[in-house]
Structures are given as structure tokens and as C-alpha cells.
Write a structure and sequence with these properties.
heterodimer; A: mainly alpha; Cytochrome C Oxidase, Chain A; 2 domains; B: alpha+beta; Cytochrome Bc1 Complex, Chain D, domain 2; two-stranded antiparallel ribbon; 5 helices; 30% helix
Chain lengths: 488, 229
């Protein structure tokens, strides 16, 4: 395989290849820009919802006179704005762009892609309004009311198909690991979504079969949609920026197939102790523990690819975020495997520990890698540099500190909450009271994240609109000294 | 990787495998459970293991019971307020957690308990207590009054709670002539009581929601999950 690796995506030193990539970038520019702008808009909207719920969790009277701002609805608006607004739009931008580049296939008929993107965001806006006005389904991760979901499904089909088309008309023999992940995720997500919609909302299955389907779906949104896309991005960017191949081809094969086989059985661990057949739960636990294999394999592969080049990682805005995300992937997954054990789940289930864990995965891992992806993609799409390295540093530190505070607060607080809840001698109200300091810490962490998101958005729109000053900028925007190196 | 048919088959079968294993199989195993009597009776017939075939006791009521009118409408309110995000509706077995010790239910809940629910609201969060047996813990008129006060503002009966008030489900209005029979009775000197001359009356939605909450009861045995005295 070493011969193939030399033709990989990271060897674009020749003029001809660079020209080709530049043409591919041009073919997807308008659509990718639309998706990034939508993603950032949803990120900011989702942040406002997040701050509201964080405060409501310890100040229950805050904004409680408005029905549409009640906790359950705003919380669900936050989740859907982040999962389908921020995360999925940024996947459409970064994922499709990487796919087009690796397949060396320009996007044709980009107008359709653009229109599908517009409808995706219209469907989502209708859905969020529906949640706030009380049409929420109260099915976790599927809160969007019935009247908006078909539009989402159809728009998704029209967006996802471009990734598959790029793959179909790819050039060259070798298919890189990022392409497997993206192709698989583009195929898995609609399957999961349609099955869950049909079996829970449209033609509800009997009893707790709904709950089984619910957690098969919800956990796989993370496992088979966000995770493969973030891993594909990391696998693409680490060699690109550092200019050296990924450490091991075989480890990437093993990591991919182990994830594909084990991850989609794992979701049942959300129902440990619940009213479903025990063998289902056991199967979920086994799969959750087996996830250690792909996680450790990917961790080793990524680590060995950056080893010795830490200075470059730290100087590159892209890699600073991507490596933070990659480390978080290892941590969050190992914690997740442990949480699936019955003895641990007995404590962490039903507590804020799980909320902390969810943000560890979706934010510290997925979102941080996608930030890195945007830092790499935008200069290539717009042919101009990031205006401010200060804002990038502010973005990084605010988000890195913010998410760390959040995870620690929710997991320490959640662990205590779980221990106390399992001790019937402690009155329930006391258990609730004891979570309040930790929930306040979570609100503080939310302020950090808000600062980070505003810095990111400010830098982005500055780059987009203030063309004059930004265009005059020479050389890539790096963090720290600007001499030598082409890392970005 | 160059073998693309293999890649695509792998991608397809990976998910097909869990879809079959988790969704279809559980659908076959528990997707057609029916109501049953609290206990079963042995017959003279023997099954393939030589054990007597068990049948439902004749003339006994069937469980879980069919949900009724107003409570069903109340469930819609429960769904639209997103109560599930802080309250579960499942009781775990004895010795696993403290659900039964806390009085959240007299026995663990099993798959059959949920078969008549068009939307199953198991929940995965206990910011507040489990509600599977709420109607057993707060029953009758006293339970109804408690739940109305608690929904209007949880601090009235549960000081220090982090549950938000649902005061928008109640009308505060001037007493015209005779006070309404449905008006909430506040504890003496409650700071949440309306001004003199005013009363707090539940809207139809509040009444339906409370009827739903009172209808949540695990007060029956099932053959696979008897209530042990």
C-alpha cells in the first residue's frame, strides 16, 4: 500500500494537482459557503438556547412565564439547532468538500445542491418553531414535529446524493480512509432517520420497541453520522497540514470496520435497567465495550501521525482544534465504554453525568474537529486568509476551557447526584439541591463557549465581507511566530 | 482499499446487522405482547418441556388497563411541555438503584406495562423523580390538589425544587360572586397565593395534565412481574 499512499491527498506539491484542486474548490464554493454560513448561524442560535436552559436549570423562575420558553422545549430547540443546524450543515460543507477533493471530482449541477440546502434549513426552522410552540414529539433526538420531517428527509436525500455522485465519478485507483467514512455516513444517516421516523412517529411500534428504536437511532446519530464525519476530517487534515502520510493504512482499515460493526449495537446501553429484554441490554454493553478497539486503533494512528511535530500542531489553527478533538475522541469513547457497564450505569444513568458525556462527544470531539475543518477550508474556498490570529486564539481558548469546565462540572456533579439518588435515605430534594452548584458552573462554562463562538463568527464574517484589508494579507495566518513553515 | 463492492456490502451489512438484531428481533419478541390477567392458571395440557400450559384466569380484569379520556388528553400536554426531559417513567428492579426503596413504584416495570401507550415515554433523565407510579403516591382529591399547587409553582409544596412553574396553565382572575369550586387552595400565608379578591383556576389543559399524572399507577401485578408483599 505504500505506493498508493504516495499518491494520497497529502502529496499535492505539483502545479497540476493544485490547479485541479482549485477547480474542484471553485465548483463547490457557493454551496459550501451557504452551508458554513447556515451552520454558524445555527451555532449562535443554539448557543442562545443553551444559555437559557443552563440558567433555567438552577433558576427555575427565570423566563418561566412564557410557555414557549419552558425548559423542555428550549432544551429540545437547543439540541435540534445544534445537531441538525450546526452539526449537519457543517458536515454538508466540510464533508462534501473533502469528498469532492479526494475523489478529484468537481460538483456538477451545484444549483440543486444549493436549493436542497435552502430547503434543509427551511425545514429545520419550521421544526424549531414547532418545538417552541408545543408540537414537540418528546422523543429524544427526534423532537421535530411530523409536519417538518418529510422536508428534512427529502432535502437530505438531495444533499447526500452529491457525496455519492462525487464518489461514483472519482478519478484514480486509491480510495482514502476519509472517503470510506464519508460514504458510509452519508448512507447510514438516512437509513437510521427514516426507520426511526416510521417506527416511532408515523406507524408507532408497540410499547418499548419504540424505545429500543429510539436509542438505536439516537446513539447512532453520534456514532454513524457525527463520528465518521469528524474522523474523516481528522484523517484528511492531519496529513495535509503536516505534509506526511498517515501512520498506518492497516490501522485505519481496522479502525473503520471495527467502528462500523460495533458502534451501531451500542445505543441500547441508554436503557440499562429498563423494561426491555435483558439480552438486548447485554448485547448493547458488549458492543459498547468492544468500541475500545476502534477507538484505541484510531487514537494510535492519529497520535503516531503527529508525533514529533507538536510545534507545528500548536502553530496551525486547524490542527490545534483537530488534535484537541482527536484526543477528546479517545477520552470520551473510553469513558463511554465504562459507562455502559451495569455497575457504572447504575450510578450515572438518569443523571447530569450523561449530559456531560454527550457534550464531551458532540462538542469536545466533533465540534472542535469541525472548527479545525473550517479554518482549513475557508482560505482555500475564498482565496484569502483569516484576518485575525488573536480571534482564533480567543476562539480556541474560550472553547477549550469552556468545554472542559462543563464536562468536569457535569460529570463530578452527576456522579455525586447518582450516588445520592441510589441512597434512599437522602431525600430527593436534597439530591436536587446538591446539583445546583455544579449546574451554576455549567452556566459559567456556557459563557466561555459563547465568547468562543462570537470570536469565531466575527473572524469568519470579517473574512467574508472585509475583502480589502483581508486580501492584502500575505501568507497563512498562524498562531505564534509566522516565519518558515507552510502549516495552516 | 480498492474492492468497492466489498466496501459497499460492508457498509450495508454493518447497519443491517444491528437493525435486524436489535429492532426486528425485539419487534418479534415483544412487539405483539397483549393484555393479561394478574396471574395465570395452570391447565391439564403439557407443553413440550412437560410443564403445564398456563392460561389467563377467566373473568379477571386485564392489565395494563386501557387509558381513559381526559387522562389521554393530559398526556398530550405532558408531551408538549417536554416533561420527559426531567422525569422518567420506568421503575428499575430491586437492588439496582433505589427506585423501589424511594417508593417510585411497588415493583419493576416490564415491557408489557407499556403496550397500550401510543407514545412510550420511558425517559432517560431524573432531574426530578420518576413518575411511573405518581398516581399511586398522590391519589384522590388530596393528590389532585397537591399536583395543581405543584404545577402552579413547585415552591409552594416542594421548596427548593428546580422544576419550573407552569403558571401559564392557570388563570388568575377576580372572584365574581361565589368563588370557583375549582380554585386552588393555598396553604395559609403562602407568598404565592393570589391577592385577596382573586383566585387561581386551572385551565382545561391543567386539569387534563393532572388527570394524566394521577392515572400513572403501577397498582397491578403481571404474571412476569408480581407485586410482592
Amino acid at each position: 500500500m505504500s505506493a498508493d499512499q504516495k499518491q494520497g491527498p497529502y502529496s499535492s506539491t505539483s502545479e497540476a494537482v493544485r490547479l485541479e484542486l482549485s477547480q474542484i474548490d471553485a465548483s463547490i464554493r457557493s454551496a459550501a459557503l451557504f452551508f458554513v454560513i447556515s451552520a454558524i448561524a445555527w451555532l449562535l442560535i443554539g448557543t442562545v438556547f443553551a444559555l437559557l436552559v443552563a440558567v433555567k436549570a438552577h433558576q427555575p423562575n427565570f423566563a418561566s412565564t412564557f410557555e414557549f420558553l419552558t425548559f423542555g422545549r428550549v432544551r429540545s430547540a437547543h439540541l435540534n439547532a445544534m445537531a441538525l443546524g450546526w452539526a449537519s450543515n457543517i458536515i454538508f460543507a466540510v464533508g462534501l468538500w473533502i469528498m469532492a477533493r479526494l475523489c478529484r471530482a468537481p460538483i456538477n449541477h451545484k444549483g440543486i445542491l444549493f436549493i436542497a440546502g435552502v430547503f434543509w434549513n427551511i425545514g429545520l426552522t419550521v421544526g424549531i418553531f414547532g418545538i417552541l410552540r408545543g408540537d414537540i414529539t418528546s422523543v429524544e433526538w427526534l423532537e421535530i414535529p411530523k409536519y417538518a420531517t418529510p422536508l428534512l428527509a427529502i432535502s437530505y436525500a438531495l444533499i447526500g446524493v452529491w457525496g455519492v455522485m462525487a464518489f461514483r465519478f472519482r478519478k484514480g485507483d486509491h480510495v482514502y480512509v476519509s472517503q470510506w467514512y464519508i460514504l458510509a455516513a452519508l448512507f447510514w444517516f438516512p437509513w437510521l432517520y427514516v426507520v426511526a421516523q416510521v417506527m416511532i412517529i408515523w406507524f408507532p411500534a408497540r410499547g418499548v420497541v419504540q424505545s429500543v428504536t429510539n436509542w438505536w437511532f439516537a446513539h447512532n446519530v453520534l456514532g454513524l453520522w457525527f463520528t465518521p464525519m469528524a474522523l474523516a476530517t481528522a484523517y484528511y487534515l492531519i496529513p495535509k497540514v503536516l505534509g506526511r502520510p498517515i501512520y498506518s493504512y492497516y490501522l485505519s482499515v481496522l479502525g473503520f470496520w471495527a467502528l462500523a460493526i460495533f458502534y451501531n449495537w451500542a445505543g441500547i446501553h441508554h436503557l440499562i435497567g429498563g423494561p426491555i429484554p435483558v439480552w438486548l441490554i447485554s448485547a448493547g454493553i458488549v458492543a459498547s465495550v468492544m468500541m475500545v478497539i476502534p477507538v484505541v486503533v484510531v487514537g494510535i494512528n492519529h497520535h503516531m501521525s503527529v508525533v514529533g511535530l507538536y510545534k507545528e500542531v500548536w502553530r496551525s489553527p486547524t490542527l490545534r482544534f483537530v488534535v484537541f478533538g482527536a484526543i477528546s475522541y479517545t477520552l470520551v469513547s473510553l469513558i463511554g465504554s465504562a459507562m455502559a457497564l451495569r455497575t457504572v450505569s447504575e450510578i450515572t444513568h438518569f443523571t447530569h453525568f450523561t449530559v456531560g458525556h454527550a457534550h464531551h462527544g458532540v462538542y469536545a470531539f466533533f465540534t472542535m474537529i469541525m472548527f479545525g475543518g473550517v479554518y482549513y477550508m475557508m482560505p482555500r474556498l475564498l482565496k484569502r486568509e483569516w484576518p485575525s490570529s488573536f480571534l482564533i486564539k480567543l476562539h480556541f481558548w474560550a472553547c477549550a476551557l469552556g468545554i472542559t469546565i462543563m464536562i468536569v462540572a457535569l460529570q463530578v456533579g452527576g456522579w455525586i447526584q447518582g450516588l445520592e439518588m441510589n441512597n434512599a435515605e437522602i431525600p430527593f430534594l436534597e439530591v436536587v439541591q446538591n446539583t445546583i452548584p455544579w449546574l451554576k458552573a455549567r452556566s459559567v462554562s456556557g459563557l466561555f463557549l459563547t465568547v468562543g463562538h462570537i470570536a469565531f463568527a466575527a473572524n469568519f464574517f470579517w473574512m467574508l465581507f472585509a475583502a480589502g484589508t483581508v486580501l492584502a494579507k500575505q501568507g497563512p495566518t498562524l498562531l505564534g511566530s509566522n516565519e518558515g513553515g507552510t502549516a495552516q | 482499499m480498492k474492492n468497492l463492492p466489498l466496501l459497499f456490502c460492508g457498509i450495508f451489512f454493518a447497519l443491517a446487522f444491528s437493525f435486524t438484531g436489535l429492532i426486528l428481533t425485539s419487534h418479534i419478541q415483544i412487539g405483539s405482547l397483549t393484555q393479561t390477567t394478574e396471574t395465570l392458571e395452570a391447565t391439564d395440557d403439557l407443553d413440550e418441556n412437560g410443564m403445564p400450559v398456563m392460561v389467563m384466569a377467566e373473568g379477571e380484569p386485564l392489565y395494563p388497563a386501557m387509558p381513559v379520556g381526559l387522562a389521554q388528553q393530559g398526556k398530550e400536554i405532558y408531551i408538549s411541555m417536554g416533561c420527559i426531559y426531567c422525569h422518567s417513567q420506568q421503575v428499575r428492579r430491586n437492588e439496582f438503584g433505589a427506585d423501589i426503596e424511594r417508593g417510585w413504584g411497588p415493583r419493576q416495570t416490564v415491557a408489557r406495562d407499556y403496550i397500550l401507550q401510543e407514545r412510550v415515554l420511558l425517559g432517560t433523565m431524573r432531574t426530578g423523580p420518576d413518575l411511573a407510579h405518581l398516581g399511586g403516591r398522590y391519589a384522590g382529591d388530596a393528590g389532585r390538589d397537591w399536583n395543581h399547587l405543584h404545577l402552579y409553582n413547585p415552591q409552594i409544596v416542594s421548596k427548593g425544587s428546580t422544576m419550573p412553574p407552569f403558571a401559564f396553565l392557570y388563570d388568575v382572575r377576580q372572584i365574581a360572586g361565589k368563588p370557583s369550586e375549582e380554585a386552588l387552595t393555598f396553604p395559609p400565608d403562602s407568598e404565592y397565593a393570589p391577592e385577596t379578591g382573586y383566585e387561581v383556576v386551572p385551565t382545561r389543559r391543567a386539569k387534563a395534565l393532572v388527570e394524566y399524572l394521577l392515572s400513572l399507577k403501577i397498582n397491578y401485578s403481571l404474571p412476569e412481574a408480581p407485586i410482592l408483599e
